[in-house]
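new request in #modeling-help
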Amino acid sequence: MSAPVVTRFAPSPTGFLHIGGGRTALFNWLYAKRFGGKMLLRIEDTDRERSTEAAIAAILDGLQWLGITWDGDVVYQFARAARHREVAEKLLAEGKAYYCYASPQELEEMREAARAAGKPMRYDGRWRDRDPSEAPAGVKPVIRLKAPTEGETVVDDQVQGRVTWQNKDLDDLVLLRSDGTPTYMLAVVVDDHDMAVTHVIRGDDHLTNAARQTQIYQACGWDIPMFAHIPLIHGPDGAKLSKRHGALGVDAYRSLGYLPAALRNYLVRLGWSHGDQEFFSTEEMIAAFDLSGVGRSPARFDFAKLEHLNGHYMRASSDEELVKAIEVILPEVGPAKGAPAQLSPELRAKFVAAMPGLKERAKTLVELIDSAYYLYAQRPLSFEPKAEQLLADGGRARVAALLPALKALPEWTAASTEGAVRAFAEETGAKLGQVAQPLRAALTGRSTSPGLFDVMAVLGREESLARLEDQAAKA
RNA sequence: GCUCCCAUCGUCUAGCGGUCUAGGACGUCGCCCUCUCACGGCGAAAACAGGGGUUCGAGUCCCCUUGGGAGCGCCA
């Protein structure tokens, strides 16, 4: 009987949930689901200066939007400080850790000297074997781990393979700060142990930390969890995905008009693969996910591919789902694009009716809103340059000539208007496109749109004829 | 500087010694479909970083070089 799988996502609340964190959370979640285990959520808020309530809210909100759930209550690391200190003091009592009275300035000098000499920048262990009686008066000491000086520390990583460090290269890290609060290194180990975490899946910027944490586990005599360090996501330029390179919070992707399912599918394929499969439903992801499929090299973030996936998921969505998704972001992105912040029942009905033609042509919800301009546009319409050109180049005359036939239609449907327009084109010896394009321009203000006759059907007789008359009058 | 990690088309990747004249996807470029734009279909260009080994045989194993990345805090 092996212990049930327990993974955890442990962000520090110093900012929004960025895309890399989102993927880490996704991998942890998938792994837990795959093996019938649990994913825990721990907020690493021991940095009291930088942790904020707003960031915690943003992270929780981001996870929720992505559809990633966690088991049990959220664990706040700062609340466990007493337990962390207890472990540090236990190690101290057992002789596996010691008080270090070196001042920050002393440490800085040590680093400077090492840098100047081209040596590794490590703590030199000056208090490791000194008697506490030599302690300078009035200095609050930190507690450092008495790390092994010989031999090696090995991390058997599920993604990176077997990674080895010479212990002489690792220094005595601080476990407890002079103010009695735990360092990240200690807190992570104690929490993961107490939370019974079996698999630590995180970014490979933590790979070196895994070695140092392994030493803490060993000093405590605890079982070491499986480690899996996944490669980082880079920006399109290959550099680290940083804020200045446009690293966005997941909330930004929502505003950009991406669907959670699309982002999840994009993210899971960034660094992980399952043969040639590109599309994964959530169920398929869970069934197929494993650490053995995770690659070791960093991936660049590619918006073009994300857009393609998003278009795929939009087309696969029902009209009603799409309109609902639009309504979520409309208050935020609508007004700026000249669209309403909310859909009236009448407009909403038009959106639903036009959705089949609209969703074929958009890659994001924002594009969808934009291309639906003709639905919420008020007369007189504004025209894009290309549309204006179509009308100016004899288009208005054609619209005017065709108008009587459309007005005479006994019923107003896509089929009936199409019949009238085709008949008109045939009579006048024009190609359908020569008639359709000016009509499109007059009706939508654009040179591109969903099928012309669907547009007229959704707009209705009255509005369609009014827009056409607006142009015919100027012919 | 020191330690560690990585390296297949522009990008994400398949490949786990022979089935690779290297496959898929995005993007790009043609053609088809067509009332526009998309979607869809068909097709094309496009990669094993370089050099040494090991082996009957290397994209696949080892070493070096080069190029990326991460870490080196009383931050997380």
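bot summary: The first strand of chain A starts at residue 6 and ends at 9.
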